[in-house]
């Protein structure tokens, strides 16, 4: 079991309020990702769930029990950090065994568990090495292994892949997703990388300045962002915003259109523009188009794009994909 229920949870550091009242129900077995810009309170809330940071007000329930003041070791949760936090003088075997030895588990059982975890994480050949003799990805797998052997009711990850290079990050992302599918254990995963959030999460909670702006599945957030902040945070390349004269009909003050929802024409369209930088990614192309009277638009098009720097083109949004925002940034129904 590993359900976590946050009720009106807050955190102040001195007179600075870092977590505003937050309500969130994390279901048993769910993979939930906390995403948001630097300093928005993701790590703080994760550490509060772990018990590493005390809670100023509100309640944290784990499996239906009030755990707000329960010491970290008694919460049945395992945390994995960006820095791995391995013991450098201990072998991989002893690093993984450490929590079990501390819990006075029988040596034979420890050996069995280490063998099984090492197999799952592809660490069998490295058990006698020290962390300093491993690559970053291997070290992170050891840190995850140390968390797995404890059979926690939930895993808490704080940016576990940030120290890895791009291709290793993609591999580890898949490995953690696989692990979630095979263990079926609740995972709470903090990242500032929206691609990680989109690809791994059952549900994403988008944080901003100590509040949660929206919680939903990756596609719910992509298709129906609650506001400009979520629309701007989810999706890559980023959505284009267009400020307009406030509508007297529904109060729309700005529009949002994703780069993949803009049509290009050489003969006519809603906006005339001139192509600036072109990014060729092979499978797709990103055009940065200077549009008369607006900011630069990003447009996503096919890999075999025929245009070049300086070409004059027209852009038109797919009308049913336009997002409408009011003066406060809240999303309005698209009545087009
Ligand atoms: N011990 C502390 N004392 C005072 N302020 C703190 C403390 N720890 C964190 N903060 C502040 O709380 C806010 C939230 O920090 P937190 O580490 O939770 O952000 P984050 O969302 O994890 O950011 P990042 O993506 O950079 O890791 C920040 O403004 C930070 O400066
Ligand atoms: Mg953090």
Task: Describe what is shown at a glance.
This protein is an alpha+beta fold. The protein has helices at 42-50, 92-102, 107-120, 136-148, 166-183, 194-200, 218-223, 228-233, and strands at residues 4-13, 16-26, 31-35, 57-62, 65-66, 77-81, 154-158, 186-191, 203-208, 211-216, 240-243, 254-257, 262-265, 271-280, 284-291, 296-302, 312-317, 323-325, 331-332. Strands 6-7-8-3-9-10 form a six-stranded mixed beta sheet, sandwiched between helices.
Question: Can you walk through the features of this model?
Answer:
With 336 residues, this protein is an alpha+beta fold. It folds into two domains: 4-231, P-loop containing nucleotide triphosphate hydrolases (Rossmann fold), CATH 3.40.50; 241-332, Nucleic acid-binding proteins (OB fold (Dihydrolipoamide Acetyltransferase, E2P), Beta Barrel). It contains eight helices and 19 strands. It has helices spanning 42-50, 92-102, 107-120, 136-148, 166-183, 194-200, 218-223, 228-233, and strands at residues 4-13, 16-26, 31-35, 57-62, 65-66, 77-81, 154-158, 186-191, 203-208, 211-216, 240-243, 254-257, 262-265, 271-280, 284-291, 296-302, 312-317, 323-325, 331-332. The strands form four sheets. Strands 6-7-8-3-9-10 form a six-stranded mixed beta sheet, with helices on both faces. It has a five-stranded antiparallel beta sheet with strand order 13-17-14-15-16, with no helix packed on it. A hairpin with a 3-residue loop joins strand 14 (271-280) and strand 15. The protein is globular, with a radius of gyration of 24 Å. The chain binds adenosine-5'-triphosphate and magnesium ion. Magnesium ion (MG) binds at residues 42-43.
């Amino acid at each position: 079991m590993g359900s976590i229920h946050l009720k009106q949870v807050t955190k102040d550091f001195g007179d600075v309020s870092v977590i505003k009242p937050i309500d969130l129900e994390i279901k048993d077995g769910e993979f939930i990702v906390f995403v948001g810009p630097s300093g928005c309170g993701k790590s703080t809330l994760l550490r509060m769930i772990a018990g590493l940071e005390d809670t100023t007000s509100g309640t944290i329930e784990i499996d239906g029990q009030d755990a707000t003041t329960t010491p970290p070791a008694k919460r049945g949760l395992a945390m994995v950090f960006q820095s791995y936090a391995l013991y450098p003088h201990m072998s991989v075997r002893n690093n993984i065994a450490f929590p079990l030895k501390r819990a006075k588990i029988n040596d034979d059982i420890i050996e069995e568990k280490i063998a099984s975890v090492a197999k799952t994480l592809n660490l069998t050949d490295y058990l006698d090495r020290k962390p300093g003799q491993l690559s970053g990805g291997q070290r992170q797998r050891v840190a995850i292994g140390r968390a797995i052997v404890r059979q926690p009711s939930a895993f808490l990850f704080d940016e576990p892949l940030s120290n890895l290079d791009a291709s290793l990050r993609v591999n580890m992302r898949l490995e953690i997703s696989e692990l979630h599918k095979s263990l079926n254990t609740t995972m709470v995963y903090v990242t500032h990388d929206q691609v990680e959030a989109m690809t791994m999460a059952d549900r994403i909670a988008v944080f901003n300045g100590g509040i949660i702006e929206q919680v939903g599945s990756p596609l719910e957030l992509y298709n129906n962002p609650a506001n400009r902040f979520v629309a701007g945070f989810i999706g890559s390349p980023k959505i284009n915003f267009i400020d307009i004269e406030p509508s007297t009909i529904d109060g729309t003050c700005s529009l949002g259109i994703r780069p993949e929802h803009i049509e290009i024409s050489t003969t006519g369209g809603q906006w005339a523009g001139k192509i600036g930088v072109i990014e060729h990614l092979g499978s797709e192309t990103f055009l940065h188009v200077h549009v008369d009277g607006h900011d630069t638009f990003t447009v996503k098009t096919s890999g075999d794009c025929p245009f070049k720097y300086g070409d004059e083109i027209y852009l038109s949004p797919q009308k049913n994909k336009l997002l409408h925002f009011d003066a406060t940034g809240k999303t309005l129904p698209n009545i087009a």
